Every structure is written in structure tokens, then in C-alpha cells.
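Below is a typical protein record.
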Amino acid sequence: MSPATRLLGLGEPTHGVEAFPELRNELFHHLVEHEGYRSIALESDCLSALAADAYVAEGIGTLDDAMSRGFSHGFGASPANRELLRWMRAYNEQRPPHERLRFYGFDGPLEITGAAGPRPALSTLHDYLAAHLDLPWSRETLDELLGTDERWTNPAAMMDPAQSVGRTPDAKELRLVADDLRALLTSHAPHLMTATSPDDFWHADLHARTATGLLRYHAGMADTASTRIGGLMSLRDTMMADNLDAIVRREARRGPTLAFAHNGHLQRDKSQMQFADRPHQWWSAGAIIGTRLGDQYAFAASTFGTRGSDVPHPDTLEGFLSAFPDARAVIDPGRLAAALDRKLTARVPADHTYAALDPATTDQFDAIVFVKEI
């Protein structure tokens, strides 16, 4: 990795396999102790992560509470994630605030079954601004436009655009209000950062990004075009990239950040998936943030060889790497390409939740992290 790296993305090929977050923990320990890293960002709800960060940075609450409230997508059940928070809290206990490790989520509040409602993010942003500025909108006005939370979180809307409220007149009005509130936050930043604090302002901006991103995503859920699913994936990765950008800027004076997510969210090339018998493509968060950071962004993709009865064919990338003697290895893609004596094919995994690496795109990686067996 380049010494100029500000954001190191470590991808995993599938979720729910502890070998990869365990490997992430080992890498993060090394980066903290030897490379000056002071923060980690996970593919988890950016607002929920505030509870986990409060625990590791300030000792607020308990580890059990941080695990139950600080993660989305079921990641709070991961023993490796629990060990990560425990280690970060122990590291921070005897250190001053500017040296403490920080924990971030960089995903939006977007579960597989649908998106959260915008009320928490929008209300928090409104209240922050209302304490210091005269606003043309009251909380009562926002509540009237928002309506009930249930209409935003209706799981049927994920598959049926007609069930979404994202393009109703109230939702369209809320998008304008959220955009105006965020513009006020930006235009009054010099005053607000002095009247409150840089941390308070950063949290307000986090809620502003989340409110506008959620309203945009709900509008996408109401889209009836055949490109709807790919559009939603693109909106999600754009939210991820914006959050990573803000994290890197916040951490600029403290040290680089490690980001951990599925390979598909951190890679530099286009992400793709097959859904409802249709192919969908979109630019990943890694591709987007890479355009902003240039060589300050590095990406290491991870993959594995054997998983039970799923043994890779020798002519696949995973099969080729399985011939190496080491149980785990970090491979330079350039040296790998020079050593290849045949053209490799893409692996077709037995498990549909696992996305194999495409041998044709390894030139887009800065490193390949290989686990021989899981």
C-alpha cells in the first residue's frame, strides 16, 4: 500500500463467515500499533454505529448494549465484532481523546427488507439547527409531512413500488425541506461549529446526509422502471461513498481509516448481480470514493479456497491460489499476473451468497487476501 493511503478497504467475499472479520481484527491491530490508524468503518448502519462508538471511545453503556444497538444487518451477533469493540475499548481506556480509536458505520439505515424511515435523521438535524437559527419549518410541520413511521418501513415496498410512499406529495416536500436544511447547515457552518463543537457539527452533518439519502432511496423504491433494483443499489453505494468521504475528512489529522465490507462495495470496478432473472450493474462505493481520493484509496479483496464440499477448480483464481502451501496469504496482483502460465476462469460457487473474484479484474486490486480453507 502507498504511504499516502488515507482509506484502506478490506473486502470480504461473503457475510457470516467469521474467518474474515477475525482476519480484519488482526489487520486492524497491526495498523493501529504500527501504521498510525485510529479508526475503522464497517458496512453497518451509520446511525446505529454511534452507540458502538460511544462505548469504545467514551465507555458509555455496556458491551452488550453496544452490540445490540450498535450494528445493523445482524452483525451484532458476530463474535469477531464483539471482540473488535472489546479490544478498542481496552485500547482507549488509558488514552487521551485525540488518540482514541473511533468506530464508524458507513452504510445507510438500509436493511435487506427495506429502508428505515427518515424521521430520526431529519428530526435530529432540525433540532440542531433550530437551537441556533430561525427556521421556517416547525417540528409539527415535519411530523405532519412524515406521517406514521409504518408507512415508510412497510416491507412490501421493497418488491412492490406501488407500496412505497417515496414519491407521494408529502415525500417530495420532505426532500425539499431536507435539502434546504442541509444547505443551511453548510452555509452557517462557521457559526455552528463555534456555537456547538466540531463533533456536534459532524454529527448534524451525518444526520443531514442520512436524511437526504433516505428520502432519495425511498423515491427510488417507488420507481417502476425495469432498472429499479440497480438504481437502489447505486443509491446505497453512493450513500456509503459519501459517508466514507466524511469519515476520511474527519480523521484526516489523526490517521488513516480501515473500511471493511463486502468486496462488491469496496472494489474499483462495477458491481453486478442477477436479480429476478435480470442483470443489474452499478458503481460501487469503492469506485466512487476512488475518484475522490485517487491513490489515497487502496483496496484489498479477500477470497477463499475450499468450503466444505465446495472445492475450486484448478483453472479458477481460487483454485490456482489453493496450490500455494500457506493457509493464508497476501498476494500482489501484479506479481500474480506475471507468474500465471494460463488464463484463469471465474469460479462458479456452490453458495449463491458468495461472490467469486473475477480474474479479469485483479488489476483493479492493490492486494488479494487469500484464506485457503474456511
